[in-house]
Specification:
The protein is about 15% helix and about 35% strand. It is built from two helices and seven strands, in the order H-E-E-E-E-H-E-E-E. The protein is elongated and about 45 Å long.
Length: about 120
């Protein structure tokens, strides 16, 4: 189940900055909003404390994957692999809509599949 500690580790791993957090009583969950860059949309991490969200995906939480747009997918791969974190693909692959992508292996994203997206030229 997602915990505050896992959320903080996830944010640190991907250079996310906490903006604000609110507790949503109806879902018994903290909603932590982050900033990746000031001019981009925030990321929302859900940390349930009880109830139906703790049962979602057999208690593994609600976030399946997240995508970050980057300038150079290959450079991101090199950066993370220098830290000992491995990608799913040896080379970026074509995605839908004129993009190329690669994914960080879920074990390095604290159970979340992290996708890096580059607009194809």
């Amino acid at each position: 189940m997602p915990t505050m500690e896992k959320a903080e580790q996830f944010m640190e791993q991907f250079g996310l900055e906490k903006d604000y957090m609110e507790y949503v009583e109806a879902y018994h969950a903290y909603c932590l909003f982050t900033k990746y860059h000031a001019d981009e949309s925030p990321v929302e991490l859900i940390i349930p404390t009880e109830g139906v969200l703790t049962e979602f995906r057999n208690g593994k939480g609600g976030l399946h994957h997240i995508a970050f747009e980057v300038e150079d997918v290959e450079a991101v791969k090199d950066e993370y692999e220098q830290k000992g974190l491995m990608m799913l693909e040896e080379k970026p692959v074509e995605g839908a809509g004129g993009i190329i992508v690669n994914f960080l292996r879920p074990r390095f994203g604290f159970g979340v599949l992290v996708e890096f997206v580059q607009k194809a030229e």
